[in-house]
Write a structure and sequence with these properties.
The complex is a heterodimer.
Chain A lengths: L4 E3 L2 E4 L5 E6 L6 E7 L6 E7 L2 E5 L6 E5 L5 E5 L8 E8 L11 E2 L3 E5 L1
Parallel strand pairs in A: 2-11
Antiparallel strand pairs in A: 1-3, 3-8, 4-5, 4-9, 5-6, 7-8, 9-10, 9-11
Chain B lengths: L1 E6 L2 E5 L4 E9 L3 E8 L5 E7 L5 E3 L5 E5 L4 E6 L8 E9 L7 E2 L3 E6 L1
Classes of the chains: A mainly beta, B mainly beta.
């Protein structure tokens, strides 16, 4: 059973460029959340997708956008990259229903984005 | 609104000693609480979870945590530290209802001294 997979593992971009990160959730999961983890910090919630819609959003600008596909996979897009966007981007999947499984998020290994 | 505070950004213990990592939470609704571990250059792995059942929760690798509502705490313990426990540990909280926004603490880096 494959866990959460993210691609690419590493990415280098320059200021002003755009980037797309991809995530495939764990089998049986229907919800995908994205987090930004700056060096030495805890993960910060960006947004969450369920049924192909953004359900919740953290305190991130509109430059950060996302999408969820019918197969539950997801993309995170960041436009007009800034140096401060350099971080580890983590995808987590979960199921929206079920007492014992709800809210338990399984994380991928992340995509390390460096903005030069 | 919800938040967690992890006391101590760095904790050092000797191999074989008790591990105690502290977490206090704030939540306006009944919370779910989690501990995750992160090894260098890896994602987060769930250690254990509290989802309003038993207040003493046992997780993987010999870790456990106790939910204390009166103290708004969810401290992580392990009786005997192993070298392989050296990692960063994150406490997290989410509301028990609705959508699943999870709020993480700033992390505690555990060093195990041989």
């Amino acid at each position: 059973d494959a866990g959460v997979t993210q691609s690419p593992t590493h990415l280098i971009k320059t200021r002003g460029q755009q980037v797309t990160l991809r995530c495939s959730p764990k089998s049986g999961h229907d919800t995908v959340s994205w987090y930004q983890q700056a060096l030495g910090q805890g993960p910060q919630f960006i947004f969450q997708y369920y049924e192909e819609e953004e359900r919740q959003r953290g305190n991130f600008p509109d430059r950060f956008s996302g999408h969820q596909f019918p197969n539950y996979s997801s993309e995170l897009n960041v436009n007009a990259l800034l140096l401060g966007d350099s971080a580890l981007y983590l995808c987590a999947s979960s199921v929206i229903t079920g007492r014992d499984t709800k809210n338990i998020q399984y994380f991928g290994a992340g995509t390390r984005l460096s903005v030069l | 609104a919800q938040s967690v505070t992890q006391l101590g950004s760095h904790v050092s213990v000797s191999e074989g000693a008790l591990v105690l990592l502290r977490c206090n939470y704030s939540s306006s609704v009944p919370p779910y609480l989690f501990w995750y571990v992160q090894y260098p250059n890896q994602g987060l792995q769930l250690l254990l979870k509290y989802t309003s059942a038993a207040t003493l929760v046992k997780g993987i690798n010999g870790f456990e945590a106790e939910f204390k509502k009166s103290e708004t705490s969810f401290h992580l313990t392990k009786p005997s530290a192993h070298m392989s426990d050296a990692a960063e540990y994150f406490c997290a909280v989410s509301p028990s209802g609705g959508y699943q926004k999870v709020t993480f603490g700033t992390g505690t880096k555990l060093q195990v001294i041989p």
